[in-house]
Design brief:
263 residues; Rossmann fold; five-stranded parallel sheet
């Protein structure tokens, strides 16, 4: 390849923003010459490198925009520690076929049992298939909405949260919701119904949602839409966070008072 041709190739790759191809064209050309590749094989290798690079950038950008508090995958989840969870069911959900019809996933259980880990892992699986994901705790949502209400931006917030293919709402039930937040959540769930999936984690059973919303009718209406097309996973087990403390004898499970203490 002449110097003029080489410079022209690099210019074309730069103009077309084929950065990875420009970076590896020398190495791939050398390998192709040594192994006597066909022109088509040479081009295929370069295109494969560029496609992989663009995919990696896309995943990195979508992961950043998802606002996860930390990154977790299913490979890091210890299913043996939480036998109440069906690993087969979770891995089926990780195919993210539920996104096609806007189906929801509800993860219920006490604090520390891995609900947020699973939610983020499924979010990462969705991003791996080029879907937009957004993660939000209920505390953050409440703060956002009170600020938006003062600035008359609730409508904008609603439209924004309806855009991601998957919305993750974490920690439902730790705090009661005021009426404005409850009504906003009803609108959000209604707008996303069968259009955009929601993964929701909660430490409350469905029967306790009336206490969260301070309005049984509104709680029932929200649950009706969330549960119509959904998968519910009840996690019953010990806290991952306290596992090491328990092993070291620093922490012991809280137990009910003995019968003689109750008399």
């Amino acid at each position: 390849m002449s110097e003029l041709t080489y410079e022209r190739v690099q210019t074309h790759l730069s103009r077309l923003k084929l950065q990875r191809m420009a970076q590896y064209v020398d190495a791939v050309a050398e390998q192709a010459a040594k192994q006597e590749w066909t022109y088509l094989a040479f081009l295929d290798r370069l295109l494969d490198l560029e496609t992989s690079a663009r995919y990696e950038r896309d995943v990195a950008m979508k992961t950043k925009l998802a606002h996860f508090p930390f990154i977790k995958t299913l490979e890091e989840f210890d299913f043996s520690f939480q036998p109440s969870i069906s690993e087969r069911q979770v891995r089926e959900l990780a195919t993210v076929r539920f996104l096609a019809h806007g189906e929801n996933i509800l993860l219920l259980g006490p604090p520390g049992v891995g609900k947020t880990h699973l939610a983020i892992a499924l979010g990462m699986a969705a991003i791996a298939q080029r879907n937009h994901v957004y993660f939000l705790t209920m505390v953050d949502l409440i703060e956002m909405l009170h600020k938006d209400a003062k600035e008359d931006r609730l409508g904008h917030r609603l439209r924004t949260l309806c855009k991601p293919k998957l919305l993750i709402l974490d920690e439902m039930g730790y705090f009661p919701l005021d009426r404005m937040t409850a009504q906003f959540l009803f609108q959000l769930v209604s707008r996303r119904y069968q259009k955009g999936s929601i993964i929701l984690t909660s430490n409350k059973s469905f029967g306790e949602w009336g206490d969260i919303f301070t309005d049984q009718v509104l709680a029932t209406a929200i649950l009706d839409r969330l549960l119509h097309y959904s998968t519910t996973i009840n996690v019953r087990g010990h806290s991952f966070r306290l596992r090491e403390k328990r092993k070291a004898g620093i922490f012991h499970d809280l137990t009910q008072p003995q019968k003689e203490d109750q008399d």
